[in-house]
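Protein Record: Sequence and Backbone Structure Tokens
======================================================
Tokens: labelled as protein backbone structure tokens, with as many entries as the chain has residues.
Question of interest: how does this chain fold, as expressed in backbone structure tokens?

___
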Amino acid sequence: MLNTRIERLMLGMLGIVLIGTAGFVILEGVNWFDALYMTTITLATVGFNEVWELSALGRIWTIVIMFSGIGIFFLIVGHIAQRTVDLQHYRRFRMASQVKRINEHFILCGYGRMGQAIAKELVAAGKKFVVIEKDTEKVGNLMVADMVYIEGDATDDEVLIKAGIERATTLIGVLKDDQDNLFLTLSARSMKKELFILTRATSLSSIPKMKQAGADMVMNPYETAGIKLARMAMSPGIVEYIELIMRRGNLDLALETYTIKHDSRAENRSIAELEVRKNYNIIITAVEQVGGISDFNPDPNYKFKAGDKLIALGNMENLLQFEEICEAVI
């Protein structure tokens, strides 16, 4: 049984070849091979000379074959085009459904070289994220990598809404131009005040503009790379150790940042009271207090306040357990 329309159309084309060949044999009295050849060049519309001198009836039969073949050919092309459109619609629908199911995720705007490196790190860290990309070739790479993505312009508010910006925690802007990243920052900040926005600026003069537009952090890749190279030259062992920690796949250690939420079990309690080392086997390496004071190797008796940001070192399983006490109790 023929289950697809394309199979039926191909069978129809084969039927025209057979009927056309038989028609020439009956009407013109030629051999089967010449009749098949005449039918084939008629359907292919290649413009070769007639194999024999056609009668008036033979010319009519040739016209019938030609228009029948062209009709089925256009039906096949139309069906393939429709299937292609349907497949694109299905992919967009599937992606939209996946985006609607995720919360507290990252939005990565741009899938160039830096975007790909960021996506790789997010995957390694097990983070939920949505990529926004408008370049067709890069979208193809996202499909191959089986990532959740939205095809479109990240500076368009509608595209940001489709990416679930109202449910996202962080937006990373690594678009090609500083102007696009600036406009993206303005749009994202106006849509969600508490969103953490990290963006790239290739020009140092763009950094204050992006911070004024609402970016929480702005990175200049050239300056950052220069600082890292200098630190590696001066203290290669320290930099290598930090890199080893951050590469989660190579070591069962990770650095994570947590914010103390109001009404959480950690609020108004100290490191000593929580017995962080005993209960979670992690190290609180730094605390950024609500007032902006940063305390490295914090006092064990300092009581956490809502809004304090902690940097903790440990394995992922223990860090996830510690994260639960930093979240608000519902």
User: Anything to note?
Assistant: The chain has three domains: 5-95, 102-219, 252-326.
